[in-house]
Structures are given as structure tokens and as C-alpha cells.
Amino acid sequence: QVQLVESGGGLVQAGGSLRLSCATSGRTLSSNDMGWFRQAPGKEREFVASISWSGGSISYADSVKGRFTISRDNVKNTMYLQMNSLSPEDTAVYYCAARVFGVYRYWGQGTQVTVSS
Fold it and tell me: What pLDDT is stored for residue 28 in this prediction?
């Protein structure tokens, strides 16, 4: 059984930084594309960033381009999201997910990120 566990969330002031981690267990996901999503209160879950299995292809939502950096370490079975220049609009629960045959099938439980103004 595949498990994804996010960590690194917390409370930070506007302009600050956080680094989220997504550790995978159960079986290796080094051959799977992965991504980060977020859901703010009262809003639908939205795409944040994705990274291919090799790390060679990366995509970002326009709202985080230039501020967030996605990366992965397949040896450690961990994916990261470095978030800089955070604003209150980035407040949300952040989820990591792994894609199987084009569908994000495996999801973590989420980690709360709160940015105060």
C-alpha cells in the first residue's frame, strides 16, 4: 500500500518561506510523476506544481511561478516544495499526490500552511 506523508507546514509571516516535504512509502514512486495541490477554506483544490519522474519536466501554476520550487529526490523517495515570498493568499492545506497512468491516484493527508499579514 502506498502512503504519502506531507510535513513542513506551519505558520509564517508574509514574505517568509517554508519548505514542504512529501515522503513516500509502501513502494517506490520514483517512476511516477508527482505534484502539489492546495485547498483554501471555501475553495476547490487547485494545482500548484508538478514534476516528472526524472525531474526533467516541471510545471507551476501562474500564481506561484517565480516563488515556489518543486523538486524530488528519488533516492530518498521524497518530493519537496520550497515556498518563498509567501502571502496570505497562499494560506491553504497543501497536498502531495502521485500520478498513475495519467491520474493522480495517491494522495497525502495534507499539511496546513498559514501565512499571516
Answer: 79
Average pLDDT over residues 26-34: 86
What is the phi/psi pair of residue 99, to 5°? Answer: -100, 135
Gap between the Cα atoms of 45 and 29, Å rounded: 23
- Work out the number of other CB atoms within 10 angstroms of the CB of residue 24: 24
What span, in angstroms and rounded, lies between the C-alpha atoms of 66 and 83? 10
Distances from the Cα of 65 to the Cα of 2, 49, 60, angstroms: 29, 9, 6
* pLDDT at residue 26, rounded to an integer: 84
Residue position matching grid coordinates 520514483:
30
d(CA 39, CA 94) in angstroms, rounded, equals 7
